[in-house]
Amino acid sequence: MASAFSPAEVLMNKGKRGAAAYIRDQYCNPISSDARQQQINELLDTLLSPGKAIDDWETIDWCKWLMAGGRTPDEFSNTVRLYDNATTCGLVWTPNFVAYRCRTCGISPCMALCQECFKKGNHYRHDFNMFLSQAGGACDCGDTSVMKEIGFCDRHGPKAAVDKSPAPLDLMCVAEAMMPRMILRLIHHLRDNCKVSAPDFRVAIQDADAYLTMLLDLNHMGALMRHVMTSALTSPQKYRGLMDPANSSGMTEYDRYCQESHGIYQDAIKSLPNPEPPDEYKDCPSLQEDLVHTTFLEELMFWTVAYEFPQKLVCLLLNMLPDPDYKEALTRAFVLHYSRIAMMLERSNDPDTLSNRVVHVSVQLFSNERLALRMVNQLKLLHVMVISLKYMMSKILVENTLHTPNKNFHFVVDCGRPVMKEHCYWPLVSDLNNVLSHKPVAVQFLSDDTLLEMWFDFLSMFQGMNVNQREMGAHVEFEPTTYYAAFSAELEASAYPMWALVSHLRGPESISVSRRALSFCLTALQDWLDAIGFTSPDVCDALHVSFHIPLHRYFAVFMCEVVRQQGVTLQELLPPTDMLHLLMMHPLRVQVALYEILNGLWVRNGLQIKGQAMTYIQCNFCNSMVDADLYLLQICAMKLQPDIFLNTVIDKFHIKEWLSLFTVRSRQNILLIGEHDTAMMESCLIFLATLISVRTNLGLTDSEVSHLEMVTLLCMGDKTHSQLMDLMPERCGTTPNRDFEPVLAEVAQYKAPNLEASGTMQQGMYGPKPKVWEELYDPLYVLLRAVHRRDYQVSMDRYTEYVKSTKLKSSSTLWPPFRNPAPVSPDYDDPRIVLKSRVFHAMVFVILYKAVNDHNISEHIVALLIYLLEMAVITSDIPKKSANPLCPYTGSISCAANDADFSNWYETDSLIENLKTVIPRAKLVHSSSEYNLEINSDWEITSDITENSLMLNDDFDVEIGEPSEVWDLELLGEPDNDHRNTTAPMDTGSLPALPTNETLNEWDLTIVPADEVPNDNIEDDELPAHQRALPPTVEESMALVPDTHSPRVLSMTEPLRFSRMPQRGTSNPTASNEVDLLQVLFPRLGAAGVSTTEIVPSTSHCHQRIVNRESQASVSLN
C-alpha cells in the first residue's frame, strides 16, 4: 500500500534530531550523491517554501538542527569552533562603537582594532588613539596588508593557525548541502519585496531579521563554517543551477514561482540605471548598462544596493571578509555596482545614513593595496569613481556669475542643492582618497591622460562656486547657508585627493607624472579663464568674490611639492608671464576680500560672510586654501615685475586714492567709505608683510613648520593636549604630525591641574616657554592663523606682559616684534625682491609724509611700514663704488612726480639712489571719471584704530557702521549708476561751490581767486614759518588723538623766503596741479642752497593756499 506521506513529511515525522541524524548518515553512506541531494532538497522545498514567512521560528530551528547532524545546535557550534583556524579577527561593528587606531602599526590610514585585540596586542609607547566609529567598521587584527605584525594580538596573524588540527570530513557535509538553498530563500524574499516603496524597505528587512541573525550566528562559528558560506555565495555553478530559468520546466507551482521571480529581478535591474559612460568605456564591465550576475554574492550585492544597504545585511557580508577569496569576490561585486551606488546616493531620502553604510563596506575593501590595484586594472575602478562623481555633479550645474555674467559661459555646482548640502558625494570621494593612499594606484591615476582630463573637468565644476555679491544697500534679509556646502565640497572632493596624490611624489622617478598633472591643470585653468571672460587683469571684480579656486590651489600645491621633492627648477614649471599675471588675480582677490570682511566692508551681508572668512583660515582648511593662495602669490611676486605686482596690489586693495597727496577726495570711490580707507591701507601693509615673511612653503622643513604652528597656537592662549592636537593644521587626510610630542616638549611648559575654590578641577594646560616670546613669537604668523581677531590681541597682551615682567620697565606701548624671515630655499628667489621697486619706495614716501602731517595714521601702520622698509634695506643692492652706502643728500637729484603714479616717481629701483632723490612737488593728475566735480573742501580721514591693536576689528562680532555722510554722491544728489544694490532711498543734499570762511579756518585753507594769482617768481610769496614744538615723550606719541577743535592757522611770527622756483607757465610741466613737498620732508638741505623749515609735528597745523582755476588747482604745503 502506497504511503500517504511524502518523503519530506516522513523525514519530518522523525523529529528534528532524528531527521538530522538520518540525513547525516545518508551523506556518510556510499550511495549516489544525486540521491542524497534529492532527499535534502525535498525536505528543504517544504521548509524553505517562498509561501511561508521567512522569519518563521520553526523553519529556522529546523535548519539549525539539520546542520547539526544529530547533535544539538549548541554542541555543533562548539565543535565547529574547535577547528577555527582564522588568522584574522574580522569583528564587524556598527556606528557608535568604540575602537582603536594605531598609527605606529598601521599601513593603511583606515586601519582599526577592536578593544579586545588592541588590549591583547603590544602597543606600548605607540601613537594610537581611541575613537567613536561614525560609519561602522571591522577589526583588522591579523591582516598583514593593513597593519604590521608587531601590532597583532596573540590569537591572530600568520602564525596563529600553525597548530590547528583539520576538521572531520563529515562535520560540515550537511551544511554544505543546505547553504545554497538557504541563501536562495533570502534572495527570493528580497525579490518579492522589491516593488514596495522606500519606507517599506525597512519592513521587508525587519521581516528577515531572525533569518539574517541565524546566518550571522553560523558565521560566528569560525573559519570552518565561514568557508561553507562563502563557497556557496561565490560558486557560479551553484547559482546557475538554482537560478537559471532554463532549469525550470514551468510545470510545478514552484517552477512558475521561479519564473515570476526572475521577471521581478529583471525589472529591478532596469530600475537602477548607471551613469552614461564615455564611448571608450562602454565595454567596461563595471560601466555596462545591463547587469549580468553570475553568483549569489553578486545578486545579493545588487539587492543590498537596491535596499540602500540594510545594516544587518551589510554586517552579514562584512563578517565573512576574513576569507581572502571571498574578500576579492565581494570587492569585485561591489565595484560592478559602484556606479549605481552613486545614483542611489543622489536619490536617497536619507543620504547621511546611506553614506555611512556605503563607507562601512568600501573602507574594508579598498584599504588592501593589492586588491585595490587589481580592481583598478581589471574593472577600471578609478574611471568608475571619477565618472560617477562627474555625473553626480553635472546634474546640479548653474551658470557662474563671476565678473560679467553675460560673457561668462562657465557652469558651477549649485551649492543649495541636496547633493551638496547633504554631502551625497562623500562616500565616493572617501573611497577615492582610500585607493589613492596606495602609491601604485596614485601613479596610475597621474599617468592616465583620460583620468586627468576628467578629474580637472570635475574640479572645474567647483572653480568659482558660491559667488558672494557685496551688499551696498540694505542689509541682506535672509542670509544664505550655502557656504557650508561649498567649503565642505572643496575640502573633501578636491583637497583630500590632492594631498593623497602629492604625498607619493617623493623622488625623481615621479617627475614625468608630476609634469603631466601640472600640464593638465594649466590647461584647465586656461579653459576656465576663457570661459569666464577673464582675459585681462583689468577685468573688474571689486564687488564679488568666490573663496573657491581649487584649480589654482592644485597648481600651487603640485608645483610646491615638485620643486621641493623632485629637484625640478621653478622656471621649468611656470606658465608664460601673461598667464602668471592672470593666475595671480583670483587668489589676490580672495585675500583682499578677507581683509574687507575683517574691516567691516561686507557687514550688510550678515554673519555668514564672516563665517566664510573664518573657515578660509581655519586649521582644517588653511594648508589647502590660504597657504596655497599665499604660495602662488609669492611666486607671482618673485617672477612678475615688482612694479606691476605692487600696482596690482594697490589697485585691488582700493587704496590708490588714500595714497594720493591731494587732500581733496573725490568721494566717488564706491568700494570704500570714510572709516574704511585707512583700515584697508593697514590691511595692505599686513598682506605685504605676510607675503615677504612667510616661509611655510619656501624653505621651512616639516619640523620647523610644526614648531611654528605649535608656537602660534600657544601664544594665542594656553591649551590642553587634545586642543593642540585638534588645532594643529593638517594636510587633509594625511598622517598627522609624527613629531608632535618632541615639538611640544621643546616649546611648551606644562601647568598642572589646579583645584579651584569652588571644588572643581581645572584641567592641566600647556603654555609657551620663555624662549618662545624672545625668539619664536611671530605676530604676522599669528595674524595669518587667528580665526578670531581677538586672538591676535591676546598674543600681543601676553607678549607685553612677559616683556614687562623681565626687561622692560617703561609703561610704553610696544610695537609688535616682527621677525626677520627664515632663509629662502635655493629653489626660490627671496619674495622680498618685491620691495626693490620704485613703486614701493613711493608708497613709503607718501605714508611717511602722511604720518608726519596727519595724526590719523596709527602707530601700527608706521610699525608695519618701518618693518617693510627695514626688509627693503636688508635686501637692497649697495653700489660698489659708494664709500658710504647711506650717502647724504648732494642736491644733484630732484624730480617732480605725478600724484599716485608711483611707477614714475623715481628713475630707478635702487633704494640707495631713491633715498637721495628729492620729490619737491607732486602733480595732481585728475581722471575725468573720478575728479569731475569742482573742488569744494578737504575731507579729513577718521579712524577708530587704537594704539593698542593692530587689528581693525578685534573680533568677528564687531560690526562697523557707516556714517550718514559717507557717500559724496548722496550729498550731491547725483545719481549713482554703479550703485546697483541700493534698495533703500537715502537723504540727499548739496555742497556749496566753494567752502565758507568757517571751513577755511577749520581746515587751514586759503582760497585765492584765479585772477589774483601772481605770475611772477614764487620767491615773492611769503608763507608762514612753522614753530616746532618739543618732541613728545614716548608715552605721549603713542596716544596722539586728533584735536579737531584746535586752531588750524599759526601766527606768522617770521617771514620765510624759499629759493627761486621755475615760473608758472603752460610750457612748464610743474606749473599746475603740484604739491610742494621739498620744504616739508627735507629740512635744512643746504648742499643745494635750499632752505626750508623743519618737519611740523602732527599736533601742529600748517597754513595752506588753494588756487582754484577751472579744473586746475595749485596746492602749497609747508
UniProtKB/TrEMBL annotation:
Query: Which pathway, per its entry?
Result: Protein modification; protein ubiquitination
Which protein, by its recorded name, is this? E3 ubiquitin-protein ligase
Q: Which Gene Ontology molecular function entries are recorded, alphabetically?
A: ubiquitin protein ligase activity; zinc ion binding
Tell me if Nucleotide-binding is a UniProt keyword of this record. Answer: no
Similarity section: Belongs to the E3 ubiquitin-protein ligase UBR1-like family.
The record's section on PANTHER family has: E3 UBIQUITIN-PROTEIN LIGASE UBR3, UBIQUITIN LIGASE E3 ALPHA-RELATED
| Recorded superkingdom | Eukaryota
- One GO BP annotation of this record: ubiquitin-dependent protein catabolic process via the N-end rule pathway
PROSITE patterns with a match to the protein in the record: ZF_UBR (PS51157)
Q: Which InterPro entries match?
A: UBR1-like (IPR039164), UBR1-like_WH (IPR055194), Znf_UBR (IPR003126)
Q: Which UniProt keywords apply?
A: Metal-binding, Transferase, Ubl conjugation pathway, Zinc, Zinc-finger
User: Which reaction(s) does its UniProt entry say it catalyses?
Assistant: S-ubiquitinyl-[E2 ubiquitin-conjugating enzyme]-L-cysteine + [acceptor protein]-L-lysine = [E2 ubiquitin-conjugating enzyme]-L-cysteine + N(6)-ubiquitinyl-[acceptor protein]-L-lysine
Describe the location of the UBR-type domain by residue ranges. Answer: 87-158
The catalytic activity of this protein is classed by the Enzyme Commission as 2.3.2.27
What's this protein's function? Ubiquitin ligase protein which is a component of the N-end rule pathway. Recognizes and binds to proteins bearing specific N-terminal residues that are destabilizing according to the N-end rule, leading to their ubiquitination and subsequent degradation.
Which stretches of the protein fold into UBR-type zinc fingers, per the record? 87-158
A GO CC term?
ubiquitin ligase complex
Region (Disordered), start-end ranges: 974-994
**Which enzyme type, at the first EC level?**
transferase
Q: Which organism is it from?
A: Cotesia glomerata
